[in-house]
Amino acid sequence: MHSVASKQRYRISFAHFTGSKETGNTANMPVDLNGYWKMISNNNFEEYLKALDVNVAIRKIATLLKPDKDISHDGDHIVIKTLSTFKNYNMDFHVGKEFEEDLSGVDDRKCMTTISWEGDNLVCVQKGEKEGRGWTHWVEGDELHLELRACGAVCKQVFKKT
């Protein structure tokens, strides 16, 4: 049986809001994401990739993969590495500072991205060509949950801390 503390849910939101202006708050970092996380489930990933216009050959390969997450953060500096045998994607940013995000490891697009803490949420604003695109991360016990959204498609992934 899980204790009350282990059931406490922390949410981190990465959401796509075109034209939204966000400000960073690094004083309140609600959860420690540091660690190595191994994927244990991946639901509806192909539909998510279709929404991003990823070609069929890449979609078929990507749906067979079980990528891991290697996350480190120190103060307002966060690095999220998504690692697989096919492609790796690294996101290295400072909370509250806009940067150009190169998504060539994902869907070959670029966007202007700002990530900021809002209470218990870490919100990523991506200004680019795809509407409704975003991510939500949250930790429950020793699991990292990731919900990916794009153009109405939703993919849910779960990772276990190792």
Any key phrases for this structure?
mainly beta, single chain, 49% strand, Lipocalin, eight-stranded antiparallel beta sheet, 162 residues, disordered N terminus, three-stranded antiparallel beta sheet
Structure description:
This is Retinol binding protein 1, cellular, tandem duplicate 1. The chain is mainly beta and 162 residues long. It has a single domain, classed as Lipocalin (Beta Barrel). The protein is 12% helix and 49% strand. The protein is globular, with a radius of gyration of 15 Å.
Which percent range describes the beta-strand content? over 45%
> Largest sheet at a glance?
8 strands, antiparallel
Runs in which pLDDT lies below 50 for 5 or more consecutive residues are 1-27
Structural class: mainly beta
CATH class equals Mainly Beta
Number of structural units classed as domains: 1
Q: Report helical residue fraction.
A: 10-25%
Tell me the total number of β-strands: 11
Q: What is the radius of gyration computed over CA atoms, rounded to a whole number of angstroms?
A: 15 Å
Report the total helices.
3
Q: List the strand order in the largest sheet.
A: 1-9-10-11-2-3-4-5
Give the terminus-to-terminus CA distance: 20 Å
**Helix and strand pattern:** HEEHHEEEEEEEEE
Write a brief caption for the model.
12% of the residues lie in helices and 49% in strands. It has 162 residues and is mainly beta.
